[in-house]
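Re: weekly structure request thread

Next one in the queue (200 aa):
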Amino acid sequence: MIQALAITELALRRGGRHLFDGLNLTLAAGEVCAVTGPNGAGKTSLLRAVAGLLAPEAGTIGFGAADPAAARASGLHFLGHQDGLKPARTAAEELTFWTRWDGASPGALETAVADLELSRLLALEVRRLSAGQRRRLSLARLAAAPRALWLLDEPLSPLDARWRARFGEMMARHLAGGGLILAAVHDPLPIPARELEIPA
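Done, posted below.
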């Protein structure tokens, strides 16, 4: 299980463009950090680098005592700005596929469906869901297959006030259980968080 995240003197480049260098961050179990900055500053790229999807130009990313490859394979969730859902599948098919992939038990899946009020949506094709409903479907993966580190890219953007508050409750429970959260945001998170600003 991931119990810490340590980013040291990180430099990133994407598409031939230098994003930032010298970035440092330490995050322990039970802590959340909101990554802020203007569009194009590198917030999403930072999450992708932590997830192992983007190679740093310099610096290191560590997960405490956990092996980086093992930590990335089974210790984190990456929820991108785009939901990554197949529009032709039903919500039930999509949720079943992803939660099986992530190793969720049937009981945990049923609980996530109930908590996120997805029961009435399961027979619908994903393309018929609203943006907020699709985001709730994606959030069910976090609840159904617990992993220590949540990497969240603009998780609140399609949610209304009620569901932002409910997601805040989910985040608080995750942290209370020893989880960690690194979130790229424009809007403030619904729970207290440290802030890491990436300048333009």
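The first helix runs from residue 43 to 51. The radius of gyration is 17 Å.
Next request, please.
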